[in-house]
Amino acid sequence: MGDRERELRREDLLDEPVAQFQRWFAEARAEVPLPQACALATASRDGRPSVRMVLLKDVDARGFSFATSYTSRKGRELAENDGAALLFYWHPLGRQVRIEGRVERVSPEESDAIFAARPRDSRLSALASRQSEPVASRGELEERVRALSAELEGAEVERPGFWGGYRLAPDVFEFWQHRENRLHIRLAYTRAGDAWEITELQP
To answer: DSSP states of 135-174 as a string?
Structure first.
């Protein structure tokens, strides 16, 4: 049996889905390039969806955090409609994790910490870019970064007010394991009061 044909049974799962995710994520970190990459789906007020890749910044009992510009398309959509979904896909392990829930901004202190952890060049790029807005040319954007780099030489690059972290508080999970002949294994967690109910779904 190859890595992508691992067995997954109901009794293998932890009762708490965030803990189960952390177990799988630890295994993915050992075997998968960039395991923190995930697809984030949002929707506008009228339900028009959009999806893009983001990087998971942290996960704990409160939920899953990522960061972006508040004025980007996803930031604007989250301001209109706080429902969102994340999808992790770890091909070498034959695994997916789907997560749905509500999103809110993290505290300014948490956003500062996320921003401070970025390489300096990435902080400059975040400061220079008006994410999702049109730009006349690539050269104009790169010149803006060079100008900011010169202006802030020797100084700390602080988080701009238009950029920060978000946290998705989950209410639905699905753990998906690849199996032969597309008889994949799907185990879903849904909230049942203060606990979680686990249901196997047909592939």
So the answer is: -S-HHHHHHHHHHHHHHTTTS--PPPTTEEEEEEEEEEEE
pTM as predicted: 0.92
Which helix (H) or strand (E) is 127 found in, with range?
A: helix 120-128
CA 35-38-198 angle, 5° bins: 90
User: DSSP E strands: which ranges in the chain?
Assistant: 37-43, 49-55, 58-60, 63-69, 83-90, 95-105, 163-177, 185-192, 195-201
Question: 70 — phi, psi (to 5°)?
Answer: -65, -25
Q: Radius of gyration over alpha carbons of the chain, in Å?
A: 19
Q: Does residue 152 sit within a domain? A: no
The predicted structure's pLDDT at residue 3 = 66
Task: State the average pLDDT over residues 69-73.
Answer: 97
Residues sharing a CB contact under 8 Å with residue 146, sequence separation 6 or more, in sequence order: none
**Domains in the chain, number:** 1
What is the per-residue pLDDT across 125-140, written as a single tens digit (0 to 9) for each? 999 999 899 988 999 9
Using the predicted structure, report yes or no on whether residue 186 has a pLDDT greater than 60: yes
pLDDT of residue 174: 98
With respect to residue 54, please indicate whether it lies within any of the assigned structural domains: yes
The number of angstroms, rounded, from the C-alpha of 185 to the middle of its chain's C-alpha atoms is 23
- Whole-number Å distance between alpha carbons of 96 and 133: 32
The CATH number that applies at residue 87 is 2.30.110.10
The chain-wide mean pLDDT, for the chain, equals: 95
